[in-house]
Specification:
The chain is α+β, with helices and mostly antiparallel strands. The protein contains 16 helices and 12 strands. The strands form 4 sheets. A 5-stranded mixed beta sheet has the order 1-2-8-5-3. The longest helix has 27 residues. The mean pLDDT is 94.
Length: 382
C-alpha cells in the first residue's frame, strides 16, 4: 500500500494525512519519505520492541551521520550498557534529590524577569530559558548559556529531520555539534577532578571513550531542549485555549495530567525511525533488508480505536495507553526529568505567577517528526 504526501503540508499539520494512512493499512509506504509508516497504536507498541527485526542501528541514518552513533542508535546489550551508564544522572531519585531544586531556582529567576512585562511569548521568553538552563545544568556544560543550548539543540533536531536533504540545515547541524564538542572539552578536565551528577560527569566516570561521550551528550541535548521547551509552552497554550480544561486542572492541581494529555494530543516526539535487519513480512507488508520504517507516535496517540475523539484536548481522559515517550527498550531515558521540570515545576509556577494570563494571538503548531508551537503570545495583566 502506497500513499503520497505533500511534505510542506505534513509539516504544517500531519494529522489529516496520518489519519488517512492509519485507516488504509497497518503499514503504508510513503515515497516522499522513502519509508514505510506504522501508525496504529497497538502495532507501534508491539513492533517497537522487536529490536532484532526493526533495528535502531542505522549507520547511514541522519542522526548517526550528523551526531555520531549514540545509545539511541544501538540495540541489545550495547544499548543496555550505555543506558545503565547514564542512569545515575537521569534517574527519578537523582531528579528529585539534585535537579528539582535547580529547576525551581531557574524557573523563579525567569518569572521574576517576566513580572516586569505585560506581554511576552511563552515559548521564547519562558519555556526556552527555563528548559535551556535546566539542560545546561543536567548536561554539565555550565559555560553554555540557555540560549546557546536552545540553538544547538534545534540545529541538531532540524538536522535529524532533514529528509529533504537541505544543505543549509545540514551545515547548521554540523556547526552545532562542533560547538557542543568544544564545550565538552572545556568542562571535561574540571569534572574529572570534581565529579557530580551531570550527564557529562557520569559518562566520564563510567569510562566511556570520548567519541562515545560526545555522541551521547549530543543525544541528550537533541531531545532534552526542544521537547520540554515545546511541551511547556504547548501545554500552557492548550490550557489557555480550553477554559474548562484549565479550570479542571486548577481544581485538581494535576499538572502532570495536563502535560500527559498534551503529549498525547500534540506529540512533541512524532516518530522514531527504524531499519529492517532482514527480508520478512510484518503486518502483511513485505519488507526487504535495510528498508526504512517510521514508528509514528503522533498517529498512534490519536488512534480512534483507542482514544475517543482523539483530536480533542481532554484533560479528563485516561492517557494510560498513550506512548509519548516510546514503548520499548528505547523508552525516553529523560522522562522523569521532563515530567518534573514541566509538570512539577514550570507549569504550576507559571500559572501561579500569572493567574490572569490570556492568549493575544492564535497558536500555530508545526512539525511532524518533532512538533511544537511557533509562538504563544500572552498578556498577563500587571
Amino acid at each position: 500500500m502506497r500513499f503520497n504526501i505533500d511534505t510542506d503540508k505534513l509539516w504544517h499539520d500531519p494529522y489529516p494525512d496520518l489519519m488517512q494512512i492509519q485507516a488504509l493499512a497497518p503499514v503504508v509506504f510513503v515515497p516522499q519519505l522513502d519509508a514505510a509508516l506504522i501508525t496504529r497504536r497497538l502495532d507501534v507498541f508491539t513492533q517497537e520492541k522487536r529490536v532484532d527485526l526493526l533495528s535502531s542501528r542505522q549507520p547511514l541514518g541522519l542522526m548517526t551521520r550528523l551526531m555520531g552513533e549514540n545509545m539511541m542508535r544501538k540495540d541489545g546489550l550495547t544499548h543496555a550498557l550505555e543506558r545503565r551508564q547514564i542512569f545515575p544522572s537521569l534517574s527519578p531519585r537523582t531528579v528529585i534529590d539534585v535537579w528539582q531544586s535547580e529547576f525551581e531556582s531557574i524557573t523563579d529567576k525567569v518569572i521574576k524577569k517576566l513580572k516586569k512585562q505585560n506581554n511576552f511569548d511563552l515559548l521564547k521568553d519562558f519555556a526556552l530559558p527555563v528548559s535551556g538552563a535546566a539542560l545546561v545544568a543536567m548536561t554539565g556544560l555550565r559555560k553554555m548559556t540557555a540560549f546557546q543550548m536552545d540553538q544547538v539543540s534545534q540545529a541538531m533536531i532540524d538536522g535529524c529531520a532533514n529528509y529533504k536533504g537541505d544543505p543549509f540545515v545540514e551545515a547548521n547541524c554540523n556547526s552545532a555539534t562542533q560547538v557542543i564538542e568544544r564545550h565538552i572539552d572545556i568542562m571535561s578536565a574540571k569534572l574529572q577532578k570534581t565529579p557530580n551528577k551531570s550527564v557529562l560527569s557520569v559518562l566520564i566516570q563510567s569510562g566511556q571513550p570520548m567519541y562515545n561521550i560526545h555522541a551521547n551528550v549530543k543525544l541528550v541535548i537533541s531531545g532534552g531542549q526542544n521537547e520540554p521547551r515545546d511541551a511547556i509552552a504547548g501545554t500552557a497554550a492548550a490550557l489557555l485555549m480550553h477554559p474548562v480544561a484549565y479550570s479542571h486542572i486548577l481544581n485538581k492541581k494535576d499538572w502532570n495530567q495536563a502535560f500527559m494529555e498534551y503529549s498525547r494530543w500534540m506529540s512533541p516526539i512524532g516518530m522514531s525511525p527504524r531499519q529492517m535487519t532482514r527480508d520478512c513480512n510484518v503486518l502483511g507488508y513485505d519488507f526487504q533488508k535495510d528498508d526504512r520504517v517510521f514508528l509514528m507516535y503522533g498517529a498512534a496517540n490519536r488512534d480512534p480505536t483507542v482514544f475517543k475523539d482523539p483530536g480533542l484536548f481532554d484533560v479528563q481522559r485516561n492517557t494510560g495507553l498513550a506512548i509519548p515517550f516510546g514503548a520499548g527498550p528505547h523508552f525516553c531515558a529523560g522522562a522523569a526529568a521532563s515530567k518534573t521540570l514541566i509538570a512539577g515545576v514550570a507549569l504550576p509556577k507559571l500559572f501561579a505567577a500569572f493567574p490572569n494570563m490570556k492568549l493575544t494571538a492564535p497558536v500555530e503548531w508545526r512539525g511532524w517528526a518533532f512538533r511544537g508551537p511557533l509562538a504563544v503570545h500572552v498578556e498577563v495583566g500587571l
